[in-house]
Design a protein that fits this description.
This protein is an all-alpha fold and 194 residues long. It contains nine helices and no strands. Helix content is 64%, strand content 0%.
Length: 194
């Protein structure tokens, strides 16, 4: 399977998940069998243009060929209108646990600098990608350490650690979303008229 086909399959899956549709739900909307959608998303079959068009229309997407020079502008516009994917159940549970721990800390020590930690956690949810439950567990552990030591230095270190984990998530999301240019199967050599 080509890199371009894999990229299209990933985009279709991301669009389906962003709409909160299961493969079965997309199948009902598009008329494409759920088993075929599963094979497309797992790169087990070649994606045919007819299937791509049908699935794209069911997901309220349009296919268009654009000049390569216009790609940055089109990418910017589509990022601005694409809804942020919803966190998974595990990620939602971790976010709720983190928020609960922070609320407990603020109630137990209202005059401390936990507002910075709260802000850093809010920044985590603004990363435009699926959150990583493993990273969220690390953040929860950092917040839990503040229960034993709520000194200004400990709170500052916790905020810095959370900020660096947020940056890690953002970098991973940016690397994941970078479109890979398709490589040509062959290259024409220029003939010299010597």
């Amino acid at each position: 399977m080509s890199v371009l086909t894999e990229h299209l399959a990933e985009r279709l899956k991301a669009a389906r998940e962003a709409k909160g549709l299961s493969q079965r739900g997309l199948s009902a909307l598009s008329g494409v069998p759920q088993s075929h959608i599963s094979k497309i998303e797992s790169n087990a079959v070649d994606l045919r243009v007819s299937s791509l068009v049908t699935l794209a229309h069911a997901l309220e997407l349009e296919l268009m060929l654009i000049p390569r020079q216009a790609l940055p502008a089109v990418s910017s516009v589509t990022r601005s209108v694409t809804p942020k994917p919803l966190p998974s159940r595990a990620e939602q549970k971790e976010l709720a646990r983190i928020q609960h721990k922070i609320n407990d800390l603020v109630e137990s020590a209202p005059g401390t600098h936990f507002a910075t930690v709260q802000r850093r956690v809010r920044e985590i949810t603004q990363v435009h990608s699926q959150l990583d439950a493993g990273v969220l567990k690390k953040i929860r552990r950092v917040v839990e350490t503040l229960a034993s030591s709520s000194s200004e230095n400990a709170v500052s270190q916790a905020a810095d650690t959370i900020h660096s984990l947020r940056n890690q998530l953002a970098r991973e999301a940016a690397e994941y979303k970078k479109p890979r240019a398709p490589r040509p199967a062959y290259r024409l050599e220029e003939d010299s008229d010597d």
